[in-house]
Amino acid sequence: MVKIIERPGRVTILAILSFWISIWNGVRLVDAILFWKTLKSYGISPLYIAISGGTWLITGVFLGLGVGRGKVWSWAASFGGAAGFASWYWFDRLVLQEPRANWPFALGLTIFSLLFVALILFSRPTRIFLKKSVL
Questions:
Q1: What is the rounded CA–CA span in Å between residue 35 and residue 98?
Q2: Cα gap 50→14, rounded to integer Å
Q3: pTM for the full model?
Q4: Residue 100: count of CB within 10 angstroms of its CB
Q5: Is there a domain that residue 63 lies in?
Q6: Domain of 53?
Q7: % of the chain exceeding 70 in pLDDT
Q8: Cβ atoms of residues 122 and 5 within 8 Å
Q9: What's the total number of domains in the chain?
């Protein structure tokens, strides 16, 4: 007999965060398509915005569904996705954008977000639900 484990609330939060990232990047993708000419006139590559928005849209949906359904691969994929998203954000911010004065806030929020995701992923209920013995 297969024992069904109830999804912990923190796993639901992680899935919702993944879907939120997807929605935000879906908006970026749609905006890049709708405002293609305007973005080009400002010297911003709408192709880059569309590709990165589409990539993170698909990734977020994939991770959200995997975590929500308790797939074994979703633990490592969520860990990699969080690190990858933070790395992409800071690459984009430091290399491709104009300098912004609010970098201490953005850095603090990034660190908080990564710690929050790690706290969820390394918690015992999450590891049990995702059938992954990490520690």
A1: 20
A2: 25
A3: 0.86
A4: 10
A5: yes
A6: 9-129
A7: 93
A8: no
A9: 1
